[in-house]
Amino acid sequence: MTNRKKDLTEIIDAKRRWLNSHDIGYQKSMDNRHVQMIALGGAIGTGLFLGTGGRLQTAGPALLLIYLVCGIFSFFILRALGELISNRPSSGNFVSYAREFLGEKASYVAGWMYFVNWAMTGIVDITAVALYMKYWNIFNNIPQWTFALFALALVGIMNMVGVRWFAEMEFWCSIIKVLAIVFFLIIGIAVLISGKPIDGNATGFHLIIDKGGFFPHGLLPSLVLIQGVVFAFASIELVGTAAGECKDPKTILPKAINSIIWRIGIFYIGSILLLVLLLPWNAYHENQSPFVTFLAKLDIPYICSFMNIVVLSAALSSINSGLYSTGRILRSMSMGGSAPKFMSKMSAQQVPYAGIVSTIVIYIIGVFLNYILPSKVFEIVLNYASLGIISSWTFIIVCQLRLRKAIKEGKANDVTFKLPGAPFTSWLTLLFLFCVLVLMAFDYPNGTYTIASIPLIALILVLGWFGVRKRVQEISKKHLQEMNVYEEYNEEKID
């Protein structure tokens, strides 16, 4: 082919056509109700149903403010992702956008850090499912690993048979979680209005300032807790992955994203406020759902079993989401060269089965390790997953900033669905995420060890990059040539 260099706009268009080709083969079968519940399910998980009790013990009424701040920044991240989706929907999510705006190195880092997040999270969630099943005495004689493997098999099959089966499971798991919160809100408001004391304690706003005030343990313990609350919102970015498989992403996704902010306000902020107004903050415990703590004092029959079903559905939802997202992310990475070639394979049901099976294998190994290693080891490992969430959200914001720059330079079409207040809110969100990392260092020992290990993680990623770099460059150059766009070979541009 004759050496010639075409206009930069033509090169950019060619790259976008190549990136869009990564979504060929997926079913476009998700409709509005599925995407709405995927978005909502991602924002409501075990972090709310289980983790809130321990956080109330640590922060007291200040937890309300912490959830509010984290909810606002979660909304900013989703709106930034919404800009990227409006520009180009992709099942590769922010990994595909990192490839488009930041290059292959960034795509490689974004993809593998996100995979680590879901791999670690899934291992813990599968084990949690088994533990939740043991709550009912009827299952005491059944080995715990049986439930773990059954849960993995169930969710694996749902993901393998087609995207609509995944969406249906996520829809009904989210329905269970929403109904549980609505049930609590109705009962809680009724009790609060009635003015009836609970366990000898009068309900009301006085509980916010009683027992040590708004910050009963001081400011620093509450601030450190921000990093834990951030991870309660993990999975909200799943709407980006769903964009590549829904019927009308540019219409459906903005509606889903906009609905999340008021749902977070009602379900998260509303629930925390009610919990604080109904019982003293020190009445809640780390190893018990705060909803159970309150409802059990009302002597409602079978309430503990009901909440166990809710938490069980939240864990299954998390495993379901993990397999769904890693399968798509690994396929996107494979097609760019930064993951093994076989992970790009699709089944007859239009499912990226190779990536899903790879994740299932890791989950099985993790469940086995969970029985032979001390639980503390897995607490530390799960903390490493938190780095994956922070890096993923950071890539979303940085890509959104690069999209704005491309629009300004005329290299991309403008979008109507935008992050309010950007670029100020974009930079503010990046500052917030950096502060979360700093606060993690104060969370001794797990958070401190996690931050101290960042140089080691960076070294592993660098070594891995040199292992895939040649294939990434070859694939990039090949696709540019196939699309009749020649660019003088430059490793820095392809990287």
TrEMBL record:
Its main location: membrane. NCBIfam families: PRK15049.1. PANTHER family: GABA PERMEASE, L-ASPARAGINE PERMEASE. It is found in: Cell inner membrane. This is L-asparagine permease. GO terms for biological process: amino acid transport; transmembrane transport. The chain crosses the membrane at residues 37-56, 62-81, 109-133, 145-166, 178-198, 218-239, 260-280, 300-324, 351-372, 384-403, 424-442, 448-468. Residues 34-476 form the Amino acid permease/ SLC12A domain. The keyword Transmembrane applies. It holds the Pfam family AA_permease. Coiled coil: none annotated. Belongs to the amino acid-polyamine-organocation (APC) superfamily. Amino acid transporter (AAT) (TC 2.A.3.1) family. InterPro entries: AA-permease/SLC12A_dom (IPR004841), Amino_acid_permease_CS (IPR004840). Keywords: Amino-acid transport, Cell membrane, Membrane, Transmembrane, Transmembrane helix, Transport. One of its GO terms (cellular component) is plasma membrane. It comes from the Bacteria. It is a multi-pass membrane protein.
